[in-house]
């Protein structure tokens, strides 16, 4: 798991990959979260994850596809994703801003690409360049990408969402899952999620 500290929240106010200054952030609303699946599903799985977290990437790449097919696509589970910031914070923040700039319909596709490319981007030591390639593959120009990750208002909104997850939801590490009120910390296997969904469905 990757731990989050309040100092990182403060540090995230300035993106090394863009150019912006922090102003006061407004409160985050539940409408700001991204979700998939049946809104009326009996079981709701909240995932708190960071775009820069290797454990989050591992879950996304190896477990989430099967979980989505079995539970989300069939309408049995509503999946709600909550953005978190962990080191390298500038990469996590820029990744989330990029995914949101791509639009709601492309958000999860862009995030999925970031997770699949994460290891190679880290090895290249070119965080901005790696994200730029993903932006361009989603149809953005370099200027649009730069403007996106330099958007002060969007960054403030991101910080507000992370602050809400940390304080109101009591989440301090990634990945964390809350399924119908029960918290599960760290990577979860498909077998563990099967058991969790079964318990939540009773």
Explained architecture:
This protein has 202 residues and is an alpha+beta fold. It has a single domain, classed as Glutaredoxin (3-Layer(aba) Sandwich), CATH 3.40.30. Helices cover 50% and strands 15% of the residues. It contains 9 helices and 7 strands. It has a 5-stranded mixed β-sheet with strand order 2-4-3-6-7. A two-stranded antiparallel sheet has the order 1-5. Strand 6 and strand 7 form a beta hairpin. Helix 4 packs antiparallel against helix 5 and helix 4 runs parallel beside helix 6. The longest helix is centred in the middle third of the chain and has 18 residues, at 107-124.
Layout of strands and helices, then pairs:
Elements: E1 2-3, H1 6-11, E2 34-36, E3 43-50, H2 54-62, H3 64-72, E4 77-84, H4 89-101, H5 107-124, H6 127-137, H7 142-149, H8 152-167, E5 173-174, E6 176-179, E7 182-185, H9 190-201
Parallel strand pairs: 3-4
Antiparallel strand pairs: 1-5, 2-4, 3-6, 6-7
């Amino acid at each position: 798991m990757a731990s989050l500290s309040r100092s990182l929240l403060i540090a995230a106010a300035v993106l090394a990959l863009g150019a912006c200054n922090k102003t006061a952030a407004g409160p985050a609303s539940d409408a700001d979260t991204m979700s998939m699946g049946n809104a009326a599903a009996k079981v709701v799985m909240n995932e708190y994850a960071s775009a820069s977290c290797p454990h989050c990437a591992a879950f996304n790449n190896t477990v989430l596809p099967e979980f989505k097919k079995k539970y989300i696509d069939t309408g049995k589970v509503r999946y709600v994703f909550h953005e978190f910031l962990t080191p390298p914070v500038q990469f996590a923040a820029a990744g989330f801003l990029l995914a949101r700039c791509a639009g709601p319909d492309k958000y999860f596709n862009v995030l999925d690409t970031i997770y699949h490319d994460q290891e190679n981007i880290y090895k290249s030591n070119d965080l901005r360049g790696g994200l730029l390639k993903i932006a361009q593959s989603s149809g953005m120009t370099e200027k649009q990408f730069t403007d996106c990750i330099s958007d002060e208002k969007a960054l403030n909104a991101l910080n507000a969402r992370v602050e809400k997850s940390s304080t109101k939801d009591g989440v301090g590490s990634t990945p964390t899952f809350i399924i119908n009120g029960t918290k599960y910390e760290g990577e979860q296997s498909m077998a563990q999620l099967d058991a969790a969904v079964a318990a939540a469905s009773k």
